[in-house]
């Protein structure tokens, strides 16, 4: 993949320097027809503002919720979403793929 | 991610230098490896491969699960010569994800009507090229057939260490070009870097087919490991 990411990593740095709590969520593995490739990322701050995408919109809501916990605890966490998992189906990765997302605090 | 790592990652990305972020997905430990340091890294084989493919991946090393996140700059293509082939080459390269710029001092050639939506610079190479930040993530092709334009452009491409340099012209034309460039200070190793005749030998006839052969050759240079690259050439 050629790097076409809008500058969300720059935003992560700027937010952190401005004193916000920031988390970075990165797709680390995909199976089946996942919408975004490994390496795609989403940056979330403690106000719930987010930039980027890990699934083209399907599971971002759930990732943002988890990111809030990661910002609070400072402990990284691995999330998995897929059609085989009922909860994941509820948050809607309806494309039929499965993704694993690593969520970590910045700073 | 530590702020220091994020800061360094952003600095490398801004400078268009490739890096790989290695994350232990169980412990959360991370380190950033610059491409200049790949050779002395214990993961060098994996790092080289993933960077070449421009693809992030998981590897398991010594019982550790590592995620290698590849940050490669967007590849650029600079086309010197707003000729018929370039009209096919520019949109094709763009569809492959390249940032494309066309340079030709001849305004009759470098016109927006002939190149809709493609950045055009209607200046001589010595004026046009320096602001384009031609670098090691740039493929560079010279297709004007005019030594007054192609030669200075190629000298610039040598200096900037483009990952691919191609020039239009038969073997005979290319031999003469080599003599001229040497007279202007180019080394034999520079001249050996020029792919000429340009493009993979697929029997291309039309401008669009020649564009396909050029992009196929650029893709091979970008993606294949060194040994297979030689076999494809």
Structure described in brief:
The complex is a heterodimer of chains A (107) and B (233). By secondary structure, chain A is an alpha+beta fold.
Largest sheet of chain A: 5 strands, antiparallel
The proportion of strand residues of chain A reads 25-35%
Average pLDDT, all residues of chain A = 83
Number of strands of chain A: 5
What is the overall number of helices of chain B?
A: 9
Helix/strand/pairing class of chain B, anyone? alpha/beta
Element string of chain A (H = helix, E = strand):
HEEEHEHE
Sheet with the most strands: spatial strand order of chain B: 7-6-5-8-9-10
Structural class of chain A: alpha+beta
Q: What is the gyration radius of chain A calculated from CA atoms?
A: 13 Å
What does this 3D model show about the protein?
Chain A: InterPro entries: MoCofactor_Util/Proc (IPR052698), XdhC_CoxI (IPR003777). Chain A: This is XdhC family protein. With 107 residues, chain A is α+β, with helices and mostly antiparallel strands. Chain A has one domain (4-106). Chain A has three helices and five strands. Chain A has helices at 8-17, 60-73, 86-91, and strands at 22-31, 41-45, 50-52, 77-82, 98-106. Chain A has a five-stranded antiparallel beta sheet with strand order 3-2-1-5-4, with helices on both faces. In chain A, a hairpin with a 4-residue loop joins strand 2 and strand 3. Chain B has 233 residues and is of the alpha/beta class. Helix content of chain B is 40%, strand content 20%. Chain B has helices at 3-14, 44-53, 84-95, 125-128, 147-159, 171-183, 188-192, 207-223, 226-232, and strands at 19-24, 30-34, 57-61, 64-71, 76-80, 99-103, 120-121, 138-142, 164-167, 194-195. In chain B, the strands form two sheets. Chain B has a six-stranded parallel beta sheet with strand order 7-6-5-8-9-10, with helices on both faces. A four-stranded antiparallel beta sheet of chain B has the order 2-1-4-3, sandwiched between helices. The model of chain B has no long low-confidence stretch (mean pLDDT 94).
């Amino acid at each position: 993949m050629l790097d076409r990411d809008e500058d969300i990593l720059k935003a992560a740095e700027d937010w952190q320097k401005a004193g916000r709590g920031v988390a970075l969520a990165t797709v680390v593995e995909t199976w089946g027809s996942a919408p975004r490739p490994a390496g795609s990322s989403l940056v979330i701050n403690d106000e719930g503002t987010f930039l980027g995408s890990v699934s083209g919109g399907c599971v971002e809501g759930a990732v943002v919720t988890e990111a809030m916990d990661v910002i609070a605890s400072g402990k990284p966490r691995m999330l998995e979403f897929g059609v085989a998992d009922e909860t994941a189906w509820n948050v809607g990765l309806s494309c039929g793929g499965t993704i694993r997302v690593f969520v970590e605090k910045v700073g | 991610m530590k702020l220091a790592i994020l800061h360094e990652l952003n600095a490398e990305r801004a400078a268009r230098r490739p890096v790989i972020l290695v994350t232990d997905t169980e412990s959360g430990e991370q380190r950033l490896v610059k491409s200049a340091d790949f050779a002395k890294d214990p993961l060098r084989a994996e790092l080289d491969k993933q960077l070449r493919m421009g693809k992030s991946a998981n590897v398991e090393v010594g019982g550790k699960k590592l995620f290698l996140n590849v940050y490669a700059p967007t590849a650029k293509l600079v086309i010197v010569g707003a000729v018929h082939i370039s009209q096919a080459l520019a949109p094709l390269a763009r569809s492959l994800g390249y940032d494309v710029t066309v340079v030709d001092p001849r305004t009759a050639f470098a016109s927006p009507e002939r190149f809709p939506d493609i950045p055009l610079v209607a200046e001589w190479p010595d004026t046009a090229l320096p602001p384009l930040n031609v670098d090691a993530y740039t493929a560079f092709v010279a297709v004007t057939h005019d030594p007054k334009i192609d030669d200075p452009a190629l000298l610039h491409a040598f200096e900037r260490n483009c990952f691919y340099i191609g020039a239009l012209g038969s073997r005979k034309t290319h031999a003469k070009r080599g003599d001229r460039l040497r007279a202007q200070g180019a080394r034999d190793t520079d001249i050996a870097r020029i792919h000429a005749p340009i493009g993979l030998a697929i029997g291309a006839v039309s401008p669009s087919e020649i564009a396909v052969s050029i992009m196929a050759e650029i893709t091979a240079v970008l993606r294949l490991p060194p040994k297979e690259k030689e076999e494809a050439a």
